[in-house]
Design goal:
The chain is mainly alpha-helical and 470 residues long. Among the domains are: 104 residues, Serine Threonine Protein Phosphatase 5, Tetratricopeptide repeat (Alpha Horseshoe); 116 residues, Serine Threonine Protein Phosphatase 5, Tetratricopeptide repeat. It has a two-stranded antiparallel sheet. Strand 1 and strand 2 form a beta hairpin. It is globular. The protein starts with 11 loop residues before the first helix and ends in a 10-residue tail after the last helix.
Length: 470
């Protein structure tokens, strides 16, 4: 039956009653005698906040960091779902992406085989055309330091979905590891055109600017990213990145503030704990530094942290404690390599200074042939110096420090290595200049390297008229 039975225009009182009725119908409904609020009505409640699994899913599919607790919820949720629906390719892709992110956050290599199995299952059950799966395989390869594979999967993802900014972001990391600096620039430009102003894009741009030596631009980008981030895990990740940038330019106090702000924002930002340890060591607060590093290693068993803590112990004359950390490094490396990771870079750095320099040269030469990034050039040059091959060492040190060859990053360790190599070659002017630059960039860059740089400079003395121009 039609509600309006008369065409007569209602009077004033009738119009008021009509408006009240319309407002009531817009805001609620009567079902079975119960008053039910409808979305959009005056009395409607806000939608419930997304749960941990939904938060993590949004992060891992949207290219932003996720908290370990949320990741655990997402992994559990997808595993339960897939036991009932084993042919759900997109869910396998989400599970694989979650394992990649958890492995990145925790440095637990046990996540890599699980991630690979989930992602390859996603391809096998029919998600071969899923750009998310291919992109996650690229991200997994980046975390394993397999940059040729990262490039292959990343370019496949871009081919399927050229407007996914996250696919271009993972290619930035792949091309960086391969030393392809022109390709890095192209991928960065595409990413920024697709999502200008997004905090995650700003943070990735900051990493590229850092590698180019644009320190002020890098700091500005990551500061903006941290200010604009809304999720605690994301904001904490950018604060940790800002802390690393501050430490690299020798600002110990600011680095410590950033690392501690990251930990307050998200205690799960475990990388900030190791950064805190480095900043405290640079400030001479060694007892606190040792405690921070030990906590970092307990929470995030990263081989690099074991190397840093071992060198701190060694600088304090605690040889036995240093050896224990170096043994731990070897153990962590074995675990990571069994899980498919390439740890040749950290192994080469360790062996050059604390083990077998010739083995370091052999491993790093193979690494250079496969993925010739700037970090590998620096490590190989230093290992060659340790074996007495100074002429070849200088060639790689120049690659690592010459902006024309891609080594534009203002790195105190890189400059220190080049200066020491030049000193061994009796190129005293350039050696003095590069050792001074290393200490000017960051006087606290290493508890072992920085004092060695000062001793070398003291031995070189003041420039003489015989010194060639630097």
């Amino acid at each position: 039956m039609d509600i309006q039975t008369s065409s007569a225009r209602p009077g004033p009182r009738g119009r008021r009653a009509h408006r009240v009725l319309i407002a009531s119908v817009a805001g609620c409904a009567v079902l079975g005698g119960a008053l039910v609020l409808l979305p959009g009505g005056r009395g409607s409640a806000p939608p419930p906040a997304p749960g941990p699994a939904a938060l993590a899913r949004g992060a891992v599919t949207g290219g932003t960091p996720a908290s370990p607790g949320d990741l655990a919820a997402l992994i559990g949720d997808r595993e339960r779902h897939l036991r009932a629906h084993p042919l759900d390719g997109p869910s396998w892709a989400v599970l694989g992406a979650a394992y990649v992110e958890r492995g990145r956050r925790t440095a637990d290599a046990a996540n890599w085989p699980k991630a690979e199995e989930a992602l390859r299952t996603s391809l096998r059950v029919g998600a071969r055309g899923n750009a998310q799966t291919l992109e996650s395989l690229a991200a997994l390869a980046v975390e394993r330091r397999d940059f040729p594979a990262a490039r292959k999967w990343g370019e496949s993802a871009v081919g399927l979905a050229p407007k996914r900014w996250t696919a271009h972001a993972v290619l930035v990391e792949a091309y960086t590891g391969l030393g392809d600096h022109e390709a890095v620039g192209r991928a960065l430009d595409r990413m920024r055109k697709l999502r200008p102003g997004l905090p995650a894009v700003r943070a990735r741009a900051a990493a590229v600017y850092r590698d180019r030596g644009w320190r002020e631009d890098a700091a500005a980008q990551v500061s903006d990213a941290a200010a604009a981030a809304t999720a605690p895990a994301e904001r904490a990740a950018y604060l940790e990145q800002a802390g690393r940038l501050a430490f690299e330019r020798g600002d110990r106090e600011e680095a410590l503030r950033y690392f501690r702000a990251a930990l307050r924002t998200d205690p799960g930002e475990r990388a900030a704990r190791a950064g805190e340890g480095g900043a405290l060591a640079a400030l001479g607060r060694t007892t606190e530094a040792l405690a921070a590093y030990r906590t970092a290693l307990a929470e995030r068993p990263c081989p690099r942290y074991a190397l840093e803590l071992g060198e701190l112990y060694q600088s304090l004359g605690l040889t036995r404690a240093a050896r224990a950390q170096y043994d731990l490094l070897r153990e962590r490396v074995r675990d990571a390599e069994e899980a498919g990771a390439d740890e040749e870079l950290v192994v080469g750095r360790f062996e050059a200074d604390h083990g077998d320099p010739e083995a370091a040269v052999e491993g790093l030469r193979a690494e250079w042939r496969r993925q010739p990034g700037i970090a590998v050039a620096d490590a190989l040059g230093w290992a060659l110096y340790r074996t007495g091959e100074h002429d070849e060492a200088l060639r790689f040190a120049e690659i690592a420090t010459d902006g024309e060859q891609g080594g534009g990053v203002r790195s105190a360790p890189h400059m220190f290595h080049r200066g020491m190599i030049e000193r061994a070659l009796e190129q005293y002017g350039p050696a003095r200049r590069h050792l001074q630059e290393a200490l000017m960039i960051n006087p606290y860059f290493s508890p072992l390297g920085a004092p060695e740089a000062r001793r070398a400079l003291a031995d070189l003395g003041e420039p003489s008229l015989e010194d060639p121009p630097g």
